[in-house]
Design a protein that fits this description.
Structural class: mainly beta
CATH architecture: Beta Complex
Order of helices and strands: EEEHEEEEEEE
Number of helices: 1
Strand content: 35-45%
Shape: globular
Bound molecules: zinc ion
């Protein structure tokens, strides 16, 4: 993925702008991500925190302790429920965007698969990128 990019939620109440290059494009199979993705991995763009600016609307947050023992806050549109951003306590310098919320998600290219240890047996896995049993 290259910058600048824009995106937002399904109903359009929340919009964001990305100015900066991603640290990684990743697929996350952790059990928690399965809930918010629908079962397949969450497709996420990992960015430096200051690269992402909310330009319209407000996100509601839900915080839960992740597998690492540190909190993960998932932020979503209060109107349509779209999961937009995640913040991880274990690395406050990054911010995570759901690839599906980009205006053009086609540029997303997974470079690593995370939490393969909790992936469902029916999940699709790209073979040509590193697989990690847990997080990065
Ligand atoms: Zn919305
Ligand atoms: Zn996850």
């Amino acid at each position: 993925m290259t910058s600048p990019k824009t995106g937002g939620c399904l109903c359009g109440a929340v919009r964001y702008e990305i100015n900066g290059d991603p640290v990684a494009d990743a697929l996350c199979h952790c059990r928690d991500c399965q809930y918010v993705s629908g079962g397949e991995p969450a497709s996420v763009v990992v960015l430096p925190r200051d690269a992402v600016k909310i330009t319209k609307g407000e996100l509601k947050g839900y915080t839960k302790q992740g597998d690492s023992g540190k909190n993960v806050t998932r932020r979503f549109c209060a109107n349509c429920g779209t999961q937009v951003i995640s913040e991880v306590e274990s690395n406050p310098d990054i911010i995570v965007i759901k690839a599906g919320t980009l205006n053009d998600p086609s540029a997303f290219k997974p470079g690593v698969v995370l939490y393969t240890s909790s992936a469902q047996p029916w999940a699709h896995m790209p073979e040509d990128v590193p697989h990690m049993p847990k997080g990065m």
